[in-house]
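Tutorial handout. Part one gives the primary structure; part two gives the three-dimensional structure as tokens.
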Amino acid sequence: MGFQFIHVETFSRKADKQGRSVAFILQEARREPAACQHVPHPLAPTVIHGISPVEVEALHDRLVADAATVDKFGKARRVRVDQHTLCTVVASHPATMDMVRDNATTAAAVADWECRTLAWLVGQYGDRMVSVVRHGDESHPHIHAYILPTDDPTFRAKALHPGWTAKDAAVRDARVVGADAKTANARGDTAYKQAMRQLSMIAVMEPGMIGVMEPVGTGGNGISNGPQNGLF
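Part two.
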């Protein structure tokens, strides 16, 4: 049938090179026309956990306004607009929407997958996952989770991304032992890929998930060569 796809990304209030910011991502979630031009016939999302995308944006903006980072002199600073403050996870089922509509068995299997995937996400992120929505207007059934670093007073969403946290740790360790910046960054990219492979295997082996999710990177999906590729 195909392969399960799971995609983790973080975003800042400042748009990236693709024009994606926190505001844009949440506009896409609620299917505002300017943010979902890739969807021929957009439909309103279904909230299956937590609050709506509109409420996520309001909560995000309020918490970011209250958060602060500390500079090297110990002075509190407002969160920079280019600091990543929203983490998202997309999980997509390999069945097509036509299969879901036309086959009751497939529809039941997708519903079961959604329940199990939602439970897995709750186990991963707990109360930090403030919303999960279902979109049924694209080629495959998929859900989007929106996670805020609510337990971090500096509000750093990259700390919620296993690839970024692995890379940061590897770079720090490499520099401690005298590696130059290029070597340290290469080690960080390797750690990033390893962390994302581990995430995909955890998704497979999590109790109740066996036979529902297959490892990311099989069947031609590939594993990212590092965070710059945006595949995870």
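Part three, for discussion. The helical segments are 22-29, 53-66, 97-102, 104-125, 162-176, 181-205. Confidence is low (pLDDT under 50) at residues 207-232.
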